[in-house]
Amino acid sequence: xxxxxxxxxxxxxxxLSITPSYIRHDCLGNCSRAVIGDVVIYRxxxxxxxxxxxxxxxxxxxxxxxxxxxRLSCYDIYCICFLCQSQMxxxxxxxxxxxxxxxxFGTLPTTEDILQNPPKxxxxxxxxxxxLERTYVDHPTIQPRFHSAGKFAxxxxxxxxxxxxxxxxxxxxxxxxxxxxDAKVDAIGHLFIMRHGHYDRENVAKLAEMQASSLQAxxxxxxxxxxxxxxxxxxxxxxxxxxFTDYSIFGRERPKDTSNTD
Length: 262
Ligand SMILES: [Zn+2]
What we know:
InterPro entries: Gramillin-biosynth_MTr (IPR053209), SET_dom_sf (IPR046341). It comes from Rickenella mellea. This is SET domain-containing protein. By secondary structure, the chain is α+β, with helices and mostly antiparallel strands. The chain folds into two domains: 2-85, Beta-clip-like; 90-238, Serine Threonine Protein Phosphatase 5, Tetratricopeptide repeat (Alpha Horseshoe). It is 50% helix and 13% strand. The chain has ten helices and eight strands. It has helices at residues 65-73, 82-89, 91-105, 111-116, 118-134, 146-161, 165-178, 201-217, 221-241, 244-250, and strands at residues 2-5, 13-16, 24-25, 31-36, 39-44, 55-56, 182-185, 191-195. The chain has a two-stranded antiparallel ribbon with strand order 1-2. A two-stranded parallel ribbon has the order 3-6. Strands 4-5 form a two-stranded antiparallel ribbon. The protein is globular, with a radius of gyration of 19 Å. Zinc ion binds next to helix 2.
């Protein structure tokens, strides 16, 4: 397999990869790929059973299915993975969802609105989130909900302003769930990640970092560290997949690997 490493914005070279050519594409995949010099590293992003095939996503799952399929067709791949089937079958809902986001986006509370009137902002965001959630056909572990993840982060901020820790955590978990994570918080506020999400690295890292900052501000150091671990993991997946080569080219320091369960 002759590979061009990087995309049009991040071109880093062409390589002939023998063994990796046996690893097939799947839009959700079960591992991520990093290219360092002349070495290709594959890293599990979720549990893989003994003898089970390894799949790697050639393009990020958060891309619209049409764009993803278009790019894959350049590799002569016409993907019929769970995600593609789910999103193609979701066409009507998809259009309705985009229309809803478009219609409501202009009226979404600004940071100033949130600061001035958190209860009103909460009501509007809850309505939008509930509406968005309703328009998905499949469970988030099959069909990630990238359109709603950021809204849950905003919702969490509103609850934080009102000092409602329980709802703040709940909003964060809803945001993680939208990205396909299976997570839970125990009675004393520790976060457990049971299953990896769908590689929307920026959103997961941002959400976890926000959560960590607010917990840190409240003096909840252990809980903050748990969320930072998640943020680190999200970044690690991010830099381990598409952007890793940026760091080797420009000599910048790579983010520290704080993950320990992959
Ligand atoms: Zn697919």
